[in-house]
Write a structure and sequence with these properties.
about 240 residues; mainly alpha; two-stranded antiparallel ribbon
């Protein structure tokens, strides 16, 4: 394989400008893996927010579980891996890590205990398992949640079926819960990891917006989450009562 030269722009024979960087998808190292996963994790969070704005909460859960998978793998590679799993992942970058074989989430949670201050009580493995049960696995729970969300969306889009607007209010509450109650705490942890680990690496130092800006953004997100936390509990308790 031809080794790329850092920062050199080359014009190929077919007239396509190719910019070779010192690091990229052809470099099988930790920095390339983290960059790849970070971009994917950010895209997943963006998709969760967009789906929530369109009241598609079931698929938002599916994408959020995907984010958890990507972020968990980042934590595993940094805190737990001796390099062997990294080599396996580069052979198959679409690999979904096995909790049974590699204990990805359990080991990541164990090794990062005390690392996160913005949201220390987060149940890393438990949350992933819950997202799986409710949204991804072919189970009665997943089907029921998807059907319920579709019915509420239908009622909200047809006012004649819901003259008092209860479905629209329900969707507004669910949107607030998903965007702030779920994405908020996840974002603070992700930003904290970027600030403490990823952006301190020499390869990524030049892309950092600055620790102060990241800390301010994480702090604001945490404040928003605290404001909605009590409201989340009320809605969740009401939902459990209705489901029962």
């Amino acid at each position: 394989m031809r080794q790329p030269s850092t920062g050199v722009a080359q014009l190929s024979a077919d007239g396509v400008l190719r910019v070779w960087a010192g690091r990229g998808p052809h470099r099988e190292d930790l920095q390339s893996a983290l960059a790849n996963l970070a971009v994917s994790a950010i895209d997943s969070l963006k998709a969760v927010t967009l789906l929530s704005l369109y009241d598609d909460f079931h698929n938002a859960h599916v994408l959020f579980r995907r984010y958890e998978e990507q972020f968990g793998l980042m934590l595993y590679l940094v805190f737990c891996d001796d390099g062997s799993f990294l080599a396996t992942w580069f052979k198959n970058p679409h690999l979904i890590p096995s909790q049974t074989k590699h204990k990805i989430r359990s080991r990541a949670a164990e090794m990062t205990r005390g690392f996160f201050y913005a949201n220390p009580a987060y149940d890393f493995k438990g949350n992933f398992d819950d997202m799986s049960r409710r949204s991804v696995h072919a189970s009665w729970c997943s089907t029921r949640n998807a059907t319920y969300a579709a019915c509420v969306r239908y009622m909200a889009l047809h006012p004649e079926e819901d003259p008092d607007g209860a479905s629209r209010r329900t969707l507004d509450e669910m949107r607030a819960i998903h965007v702030l109650g779920i994405v908020g705490p996840a974002t603070t942890r992700f930003l904290e990891f970027l600030t403490k680990k990823l952006l301190k690496m020499e390869d990524f130092s030049n892309v950092s917006p600055g620790a102060e800006d990241l800390a301010e953004f994480a702090g604001l997100t945490f404040v928003w989450w605290q404001k909605i936390e009590s409201h989340m509990k009320q809605i969740e308790e009401g939902s459990k009562g209705t489901a029962g």
